[in-house]
């Protein structure tokens, strides 16, 4: 069954992952969303080494993407105690000698920015073969976006579903019989620890409950629980989204969608953690975290490897460069019901953001 023990987690953290297997990406377009630092930046370097037709870095600003491609920078990932040291990020072009890198801007905490990004991308690009939605935040305090969503929920979940669906037609546009397009959503093993309470389940709309300000900021003990568990929940929602999307694609669709767990890695992800969580993360990461490069290998594996057994990757949960079972809850009947419910509720919310979203769901996916 889909369980993780702490000892099992530690064992995999210390187990070195196999190096990235270079694949032939010639003529292919690769898009990494959230590529200026961390796992996305390291994954982008691996893709650049495979010399695709084009590598596109989608970052909060064009400058951040250009910087990752062209300039060596010193990145300070921490506020206090959140990471070990400043990191030198070498220019991807310099390190890989790959020239065809483009930067595009998208702010995933603003739904209009996601819609504009997708519109322009579909208009200007003629294909999309490898798509990695890597961007994410881990906030344990409640903040709201301009769209009135709780920030982690919007960046990690709503925007991943919105962008992935808006890019679906392009991914399906130029099928190459020898190369199935891949869409990879970066999830996490922390989804094993996510809890959806009976009270939340009993509410009329689960997504609205997760987003509700009063729910996110209640008084007393519960206050810590809701927001301290928010990141884990957002990663559970990633796994649900991937499984539901895969189940709605036609069985013979060339598109392979999967969720990937990079393991615990050094990156900028803990930069918003507050004391004492920041101190705990500092010590814990110093002891067990994978290097950022090591953590990027499962992303690249999920996006390019195992071409001879792609069927196994459909809707799969990829971890440690292999297909693994997701949590018992995901595999349970209750989990399957929640998965469908969340799809429907999120689709309703995203249809209000973009009518194209519904049109694509109706045309390309089954009900
Ligand atoms: N590190 C781990 O231990 C670990 C473990 C499991 C899963 N993950 C997942 O791995 C993925 C990558 O995280 P990471 O560890 O590499 O963290 P990171 O170093 O903080 O990188 C996160 C990336 O997401 C981008 N991003 C965040 N909010 C954005 C927004 N509103 N608009 C556009 N881009 C935005 C960041 O851009 P800015 O620099 O502009 O903020 C950055 O490029 C995340 O999905 C995370 O949940 C990480």
UniProtKB/TrEMBL annotation:
It comes from the Eukaryota. This is Short-chain dehydrogenase. The lineage of its organism: Eukaryota, Fungi, Dikarya, Basidiomycota, Agaricomycotina.
